[in-house]
Structure to design on (226 residues):
């Protein structure tokens, strides 16, 4: 019985208990994934870092990203195993290609798949992701800032971040980020998987993977495949 002058804390206690169960389940999934990955780790060191402790209902937000773990310097075999794992909801692959400087502005160029955009709170505001080695997704604000009169479908010249020579890119779309303001100096652009592979990206760059795990996936040790 709750007296009029007492506070009913039952609802709060239930919420706290539910949050703790989610946290423990998430930690358990990470532990099992780490165990299964250990069976094929050889020369490289795999860093599995818990990205968050408390997971909200949306799994994150468009400012900080919504991945649960980050694996740096991943190898191709490791990435393929993770992308096929049913316990992984989203597997975002990204690799920094380099950057080019023009005046006070710097354009960071990378390759990312669709899951990486989602997990980093990025999106394509107009157009589509690049597919060919001479296509690029770029922030429209950068084009305006650099006074480059080009739109989707047009060709622009950018210094190749690998050798400094000018390279032609066809704009396939505009990249939307959370950055705003006129005092910006850093901008982003994305090339295609074809470009990444053509540049022998697995050996020349340092790919990373962001994971969002499936909290509804089975986590019994019997379900771990080695």
């Amino acid at each position: 019985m709750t007296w009029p002058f007492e506070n009913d804390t039952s609802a709060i206690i239930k919420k706290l208990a539910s949050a703790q169960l989610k946290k423990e389940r998430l930690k358990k999934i990470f532990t099992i994934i780490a165990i299964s990955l250990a069976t094929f780790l050889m020369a490289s060191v795999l860093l599995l870092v818990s990205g968050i402790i408390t997971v909200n209902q949306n799994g994150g937000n468009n400012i900080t990203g919504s991945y649960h773990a980050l694996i740096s310097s991943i190898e191709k075999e490791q990435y393929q195993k993770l992308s096929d794992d049913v316990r992984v909801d989203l597997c975002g692959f990204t690799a920094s290609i380099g950057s080019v400087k023009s005046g006070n502005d710097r354009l960071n160029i990378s390759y990312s798949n669709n899951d990486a955009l989602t997990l980093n709170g990025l999106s394509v505001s107009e157009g589509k992701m690049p597919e060919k080695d001479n296509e690029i997704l770029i922030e429209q604000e950068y084009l305006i800032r650099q006074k480059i009169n080009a739109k989707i479908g047009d060709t622009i010249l950018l210094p190749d971040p690998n050798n400094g020579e000018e390279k032609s890119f066809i704009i396939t779309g505009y990249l939307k980020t959370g950055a705003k303001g006129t005092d910006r100096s850093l901008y982003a652009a994305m090339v295609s998987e074809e470009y990444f592979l053509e540049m022998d990206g697995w050996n020349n760059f340092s790919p990373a993977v962001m994971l969002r795990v499936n909290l509804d996936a089975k986590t019994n040790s019997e379900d771990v495949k080695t």
Remarks:
- Residues 50 and 103 are 38 Å apart (CA to CA).
- Confidence is low (pLDDT under 50) at residues 40-64, 221-226.
- Strands lie at 49-50, 69-72, 88-102, 105-112, 123-127, 135-138, 155-159, 166-176, 186-191, 208-213.
